[in-house]
Amino acid sequence: MAYYYVNSNSQPNGDHEVHIDDNSCPHPPAHENRVSLGYHSNCQSAVAAAKNIYPQSNGCYWCNNACHTN
To answer: Of 57, 51, 52, 54, nearest to 69 (Cα)?
Structure first.
């Protein structure tokens, strides 16, 4: 299981990106813009949790590409 968070700032298209907290992302949001999603077994589960907070959520292209849809 991995720890995930969602960016409280949206992208220009309105998406809130879900990131995995393993230091692999080259474009993480600032710490103050991270909303905890807790531990999940996969990015699909993390994105589903993020959609409970921000209905327009999407996986980060860089660190959660399997869940990136735009």
So the answer is: 57
